[in-house]
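User: Can you predict the 3D structure for this chain?
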Amino acid sequence: MIQKGIRHSKRYREIVNVFIKNGLSHLLYRIGLTDNKIKTAKADQQKTNDNLVHLGNKLRLSLQELGPTFIKLGQIASTRRDLIPEEIGHELEKLQDDVLGFSIEEVEEIFQEEFGKTTNEMFHDFSPKPIATASIGQVHFARLDSGEEVAIKIQRPNIQASIETDLDILFHIGRLIEDKTKWGKNYQILNVIDEFSTSLRNELDYLTEGRNADKMRKQFAADETVHIPAIHWEYTSRKVLTMEKVTGIKVSQINQLKEQGYDLPLIAKRIAESLFSQVLDHGFFHGDPHPGNIFILPRNIISYVDFGMVGQLNDQMQSQFSSLLIAVYQNNPDEMIQTFEEMNLLNRVDDIDALRRELEKLLKTYYDVSLTEISLGKLLIEIFTIAYRHQMDVPTDITVLAKAIVTAEEVIEQLDPTFSIMEAVEPFAIKIMKERLHPRNLLKRAVKSSLEDIETLRSLPKDIQHTAKTVSKGRLKVNVHVEDAPTFLQRLDRISNRLSFSIILLAFSILMVGLIIGASIAGETNTLFKLPVIELGGIVAFLMFVFMLFSIFRSGRM
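Assistant: Here is the predicted structure, written as structure tokens:
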């Protein structure tokens, strides 16, 4: 415990000194990491031109110097344009894992620790010199007994202990930021750091990355336009990841792709389609599709690598994100508000009308803009920026997705400046709408809605009895927010109408069934004033049922 405290104290001082050296003492003072502003000649000289780009540059240099944890923090922060200004985000994107590799002796120690064997016992032609180095690990090439070439990612020695120390310190800094700044409270910085910590720890576990790669490989098993490298599990552990070697051209090497006759517009189209297939068909997507993680193989095949950062949407979130896309596509702020409500994001929103006005204003700026000129990713980030201003709790996977779309758009723009990712969304939007309008899905939603109504009705007497007992004991507390009263009454009215309609439809259906059975037993036709009662009743019941389905589909609630 004492050693841990000493290590934390030493690292804490190192972090503070790096920020001061790079002219960020005023930032440390504002969040309470230093007792007073430390003025330097350099700081005074730069005071007049301390704009966002300059601040981002100083922040990038500081994070670069502080090593793996802070480099990763900056890289992930650059994906959160809803949290930081775009100018700072662009600077943080320049953060590179520019570190020296570790020795072959250390590599051998790791193999002995993980497998009890040397590299030569496990592989042929193991390259002692790494072909790529990063803050967390480095990559070597080798061959298996079968002759297949593989890429082996090996984790840097003792990296986990240093990262855990940095994460502890980051939580302390995050707590100060949340306590001392309004920005920190609104954006719930401690939650952001917690999510970052989870992401970073996942990157330290190569078994998790391997499982991510396998899952994505299965998603594209029937798609010949996308390739995901296979994982060799017998040569993989928590600190060593062995995968199929990808031999292709990085998507960023535009000139080389042109020289070798690749179809750049087709590649752009396939990247967009593969991204939305991951998101909307499977709910599992690559969280960092930057140029270094995409290779182009012969026949314009897309190959993704590095699955340390992924995003995942469950069925409900997929449906909600689809609704959000459709609302954006239709320029409908009311539909967006309803989608946010279904996602339970409006609990802390004080003024929904103000939120609606801001969304409406944003969508109006894009109303007459050509689809080819709209960046879907940037539009989503603008929406989430508005959401954060109103204290909405946007799920992390959704913000990761927004950044993934931004990153993919930047890659696509280099390949084909005329390609619009909004146009790529259109077939998926049409497919989603068709699925929602399918009678099977309409019936499923109607049944689910009716069951919910019946359950509400069943529990109502018990709830009333509980409320009556609470009132009789004098323990009832009423806390009504007047501004929300119309919304509350509207919802209550909607629920009561829905229950009444369901009960009437159920009673009418029972009556019709009784008439049909009675007529069958008696062998007679029921008429009233020479009108066929059963036939007319059947038509009325059918129309009522169709009306109920239409109402539920149109509003999601009725």
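The chain has 23 helices and twelve strands. The chain has four domains: 2-95, 100-133+136-245, 249-437, 440-555.
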